[in-house]
Prior knowledge:
The chain is α/β, with parallel strands linked by helices.
Amino acid sequence: MSDMLTIVEPATERPLRTIPRAGVAEVDEAVARAKAAWPAWRDLAPGARAALLREVAEALGSRHEELAVLEARNAGKPITSARGEIGMVVETFRYYAGAPERNLGETIPAAGGVALTFREPLGVVGLVTPWNFPLAIAAWKLAPALAAGNTVVLKPAELTPLTALRFAEIAAEAGLPEGVVNVVVGPGRICGQRLVEHPDVRKIAFTGSTEVGSSIAASAAATIKRVTLELGGKSANVVFADADVAAAARAAPWAVFDNAGQDCCARARILVQDGAVDEFLAVLEDEVRGMRVGDPLDESTQMGPLISAGQRESVASFLADDVSVAIRGPAPAGPGYWFAPTILHPVDPGSRAATEEIFGPIACVIPFRDEADAIRLANDTIYGLSGSVWTRDGAKALRVARAIEAGNLAINSNSSVRVSTPFGGFKQSGYGRELGPHALEHYTELKTIYIRTQES
Ligand code: NAD
């Protein structure tokens, strides 16, 4: 293998940058640096750690546009989306800068004395991230891990490492001590695997495919390493006939074609109640045909290319089957990994397109009869990440949202992720939660100390 890695711009297929590619030795060096930096970082006064995280947030904020352009070019995402993601990165650091000074424990009455609980940091944490929301997903892990007093080694996806590398420079300039954040760019099966197996790494926080997540969990078992997994999805967007059907249809494309469908929360199974299907499809068609697909740096672009030639091939394989294409949106010709947004209807709910995660701009419209049928179809998947329920009946909305086996539901909305609320999956979409107050639990161990107060 070459020891240099060429980063390609998906919208042009041209090289963007060439950087050194790490191997096992570089991972081991990074873990050693993180291990050496840990005691001082752990023991820093909570207020001082909080202040440094606020400095990092400010420094990222002052490079907002630079980072957004870099992300848009490297990942092929519209600049407006990239700006939103970098804004979320800044917010994530601001949010967790509040955590070191609120790392509260409990006192629990116990026979003969009292017990105290402490949330202790783990040590060196390995962060392994995908290419679809490169810096945003890294920040969801970096900020709580650092706030809790851990040091980290981040291994971004090889296709999109540029914002992670820039982050490390910015964090160092902002005053984060040497060795607290380390970024290693290299292949998952070498660098990622080494992090998972390394005896000095106490936890792996992973976002990526269910297949790789499963292999990480298996390898981590050898050292009883803590693991949190944010994996794939095949989420349902449930539209009842008593909903504002036009509003649901206008919103539906953005719930699946955002980021060109390369979104773990993509609501790629659009379940529409009998009686509303024709109206839904008519509005959906206008919306999909009117999508602006093109140059990520154009302010008016709504959807960019796929990440790579391989991803386009994998997505296209779903159209090779005997499927009915009901609607196709636009896509530019020429260089770039373009793929037109596509709606399949009718679709067999048991077919490959309706059951597998496509991770591209293809969605299925599937009719349902009644509430029970909608819940059955929504849950007929190995995944359980997100989903939506559209209806004007408030009690039904809550009933159905509670009945869907997924971690993140929205009612009359397709929102999935907020800095202040927990995010994560049921079933094979993973375990553990990111963001919100709960993420900190996954970057700490609970310690109990008993104090005997009774005189014998
Ligand atoms: P992937 O699983 O191929 O790779 C993810 C990361 O794991 C990369 O950094 C990769 O280099 C590394 N890796 C690969 N093999 C490894 C191994 N054996 N050991 C350790 N690390 C290894 O995923 P991807 O193609 O980059 O991303 C797409 C997938 O991510 C989709 O399935 C998507 O649903 C999922 N995803 C989930 C969430 C979520 O929060 N649930 C968010 C975004 C993406």
